[in-house]
Write a structure and sequence with these properties.
Layout (H helix, E strand, L loop, with lengths): L5 E10 L2 E11 L4 E5 L6 H8 L7 E6 L2 E2 L5 H8 L2 E4 L11 H12 L4 H14 L15 H13 L5 E5 L7 H18 L2 E5 L12 E6 L2 E6 L1 H6 L3 H10 L12 H12 L7 E10 L1 H8 L1 H19 L4 E6 L2 E5 L5 H27 L11 E11 L4 H10 L2 E6 L9
Parallel strand pairs: 3-8, 3-9, 6-7, 7-8
Antiparallel strand pairs: 1-2, 1-4, 4-5, 9-10, 11-13, 11-14, 12-13, 14-15
Helix pairs in contact: 3-4, 3-5, 5-6, 6-11, 10-11, 11-12
């Protein structure tokens, strides 16, 4: 395992008689998306302030690349703090400044760059973040999603090593939540910064996170990747996840993965070991291309609409969940492989004849009338043995995917 970028060793924080963090041990790795989840009031923000050096532990120590922060001299500590940038929950854009001026502000306040160099750097970032048409507008003239894009551009303008996100999707509807998370994931891959995020939006954050940390009653009760969390049998973690995770995936209306796995495990306990069951995997092809041409919100609309179509079509014959930001898996507990193939053939016909058009019409509410777009849906079918790891069966299904429907680029009002 690679060495930790930031590490907590038995970190305790007390305010008077109140203990907020209780012997916390955690590791954050360079270049990863690490998400810290926990109920309100459990110390997530206090933990974040320790990471960036705004608070010092009452007991224990914090290490950066193996060196305790408490042993750093003033210059080293300033260098450490300069690694971080922060995206505020409410964006914190200045209404009296244009987009360009908002993005330039950190360079003006924290560097000795010339005006010409600042303008060059900001222009480059504006182009990278596809904000050229909004550069001279004011925040009030932008949509909420576009304001978040501006706030992220401002957070990235100093080329930080680490970007902190404190509840970036609070108060947003499911589409906007996934739009914001997609924006974070896309730019993290593009620019390579380490992401530390506080969130309680389960299961949405599972699709972009490399590591999950659960803070519960002031302690870290789990740290690992989302797949490890899915398979962890721990009463405290299970209670915590159930307290936060809804019965359904908010975006698609399908089962959340945790509940999907519970249903699968309940079903296989009543079967013979040599029985098999079919598993189908659906993918929206080219989601990054969709995001670029439709915008992040439009791309999430496509995923949401496909989830609704899958849910409606399969009804009682299948159990479905979203396994990635562009993928859905359906198991058919009570059908043979041949029957599942016939069901999918009918699904493909219905999708091509009616479903894609309906999905496109729903999506176009988010798209300017002058724009057009295209997308396709692929499906693969595999058969697994009862009790076999569902992720393995899903990967087999994904490897067999073929396109079953394509919506060609149409101007709004001409979909068909």
């Amino acid at each position: 395992m690679e060495n930790a970028f930031i590490e907590f060793e038995d970190v305790t924080k007390r305010f008077g008689e109140r203990t907020i963090l209780d012997r916390v041990n955690l590791k954050i790795y360079d270049g990863h998306v690490t998400t810290i989840i926990g109920k309100s009031g459990t110390g997530k923000s206090v933990l974040l302030k320790h990471i960036i050096g705004l608070l010092a532990p009452t007991e224990g120590r914090i290490l950066f690349r193996g060196k305790p922060i408490e042993e750093m001299n003033k210059r080293e500590l300033n260098d450490y703090k300069s690694l971080f940038s922060y995206l505020f929950q409410d964006n914190a854009l200045f209404d009296s400044l244009t987009v360009f001026e908002n993005i330039a502000l950190p360079l003006q306040q924290t560097t000795n760059m010339s005006t010409k160099e600042i303008e060059r750097r900001v222009t480059e970032k504006v182009d990278q973040m596809e904000l050229s048409e909004e550069a001279h507008k004011y925040p009030a003239e932008l949509s909420g999603g576009m304001q978040k894009r501006v706030a992220l551009a401002r957070a990235l303008i100093t080329n930080p090593k680490v970007v902190l996100f404190d509840e970036p999707t609070t108060g947003q509807d499911p589409i906007r939540k996934n739009t914001i998370l997609n924006l974070i994931a896309h730019n993290q891959r593009r620019f390579g910064f380490t992401t530390i995020m506080i969130s309680h939006d389960i299961p949405d954050i599972f699709f972009i996170s490399d590591r999950i940390l659960i803070l519960y009653d002031g302690r870290i009760v789990f740290q690992g990747n989302p797949e490890e969390l899915d398979h962890l049998d721990h009463p405290m973690v299970d209670e915590f996840i159930k307290s936060l995770e809804g019965f359904q995936d908010e975006l698609t209306g399908l089962y959340s993965k945790k509940n999907f796995m519970r249903l699968y495990e309940q079903d296989v306990t009543h079967r013979e070991p040599d029985e098999t069951l079919p598993v189908a995997a659906f993918t929206v092809e080219g989601l990054d291309f969709l995001s670029k041409n439709l915008g992040d919100t439009g791309a999430q609309e496509v995923i949401q609409s496909l989830g609704g179509f899958v849910n409606t079509y399969f009804g009682d014959v299948g159990i479905s969940t979203r396994i990635g930001r562009d993928q859905i898996v359906t198991i058919f507990p009570h059908t043979t492989l041949d029957e599942a193939e016939r069901i999918l053939e009918g699904f493909g016909r219905e999708l091509q004849e009616h479903g894609l058009r309906d999905i496109a019409l729903e999506t176009q509410s988010e798209i300017p009338s002058s724009d057009c777009f295209a997308f396709s849906v692929s499906v693969g079918l595999a058969e697994g043995k009862v009790g076999e790891d569902l992720d393995l069966i899903s990967r087999k299904a994904i490897s067999k995917q073929k396109t079953i429907g394509r919506f060609e680029c149409q101007k709004r009002g001409n979909a068909g």
